[in-house]
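ok posting inputs for the zinc ion job
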Amino acid sequence: MGFSNDVKSELLREPMREECCARAEMCAFFMMAGSISLKGFSSYALTVSSENAAVVRYGFTQIRQFLGIAPELRTARTTQLGEHLRYQMTVEGEDAMRVMEWLDMKDSEAFLGIRREPSEAILEKDCCKRAYIRGAFLTNGWLNMPEKAYHLEFAVQDERHAEILAGLLSGFEIHAKAVLRKTQWVVYVKDYEQLSEALGVLGAFQAYMSLENVKILKQLHNNVNRQMNCDDSNTDKTVRAAEAQLQDIEYIQEHGGLDQMPRPLQQIAEARINYPDANLAELGALLDPPIGKSGVNNRIRRMMAFAQQLRESRGEI
Ligand SMILES: [Zn+2]
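and the output
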């Protein structure tokens, strides 16, 4: 349900296979969604919890795969913000020690001997930095429906983790902001370009494509609306023509036909979307390489014929 879960499911279908990355990703699970409790003298229990059962299940599978340890799975009820079911995996005693060793969490100078942030060794390579961000997204990330707003956020427990995450993102040219919202730190990205970069870093390429489609449709609607509000009689004809073209482009786009058109027609469609009020000569000048007015006219006719054919093939005429 929702874009967030779609993206998470997409990521979970491609597990981290390299050990270095699997380790960095699990480190994010334990750092960002984990808790540690003491079980008697120098014996610990590490727990990861999430409202997303598939995410916890994935953590379980990865730990078993790389360490041969089967964490204990549980569900717990929480009354925080209404009643929810939370899914948890826990490792204790010897198993917890092995997990901590694997994740480089042991540090004799830290409180209880446990490091609360990822060590440099864990985040040394770029592939592992991505994997850490991916892990953080799976456990603590949320995305709005792009039709409503371009918005990605990570809810983290404290300022230090917010800083680490924002730092990692900025290494990939994603300039996230961190704010304190009530008791929780939130690291977020709002702008389209940044969001699409972030989906690329996460490796969510299907989501990346659907984000782009949403943007094209949004642009199309804005442009048509802007044109409808323009009542200059001189441009009226161009506007009406452009509007009809945009409707055709939108139709083609909605039925997945954009990629099936020859490249020259795709180019003219793109130019029309970006410059809805350009006349034919201007449109031609915008192409690479530029073409003349009659060339533009020809391509537009072919593009509209393509839309017509598509409608016919779908029995809509
Ligand atoms: Zn790696």
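notes: The chain has two domains: 2-206, 230-313. The longest strand covers residues 84-92.
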